[in-house]
Amino acid sequence: MSRTAPRAPSDSPEATTVPPEIQARLAQAGLRRTLATRAVIGLFLARPAQGLTHAQVLAALASRGAAVNRVTLYRLLDRLAAIGVLERHTDDDRTWRFTLAEGPDADAVPRFECDACHQQFRLPDAAGPTRAVVEQLQHTLAMLGHQGGRIDLAVHGTCAACSTCPGDPGPDSG
Ligand SMILES: [Zn+2]
Asked: Is 5 a member of any domain?
């Protein structure tokens, strides 16, 4: 049995393969696919669940031998967030963290973000009921004359790994 692949991946060994939907957004925004842009996108593609701060992106790029000017990187991250390639979140320390934005289909898939380790978990099992909530929200907005766009549903808390703390003081503390 031979399965025919719908599309042959056209990746070159040197360049980061930028997914077509991201390429389309870059082209639409008139953003040139510079080495820095590809390096940044490649970084986020490699670790899609992890939110990265400016400083972490800067350090990761430097360690990959793709050092980018600090100010250039700030502008690039902001630009990528503005055109919807990246998403920007703040944590309790008011530090911006960037993650790769999901496609439009992912709007109704809620996310859970651990405030301790900043890992994000997608919750596709909850997509069904969430979609109903989203439709209700959109309906409510429409009744008020507002035009609802993207809906971002995120639950914040402590993930399973972080809540089982191995350094628990135990009953005989204090
Ligand atoms: Zn955690």
From this structure: no
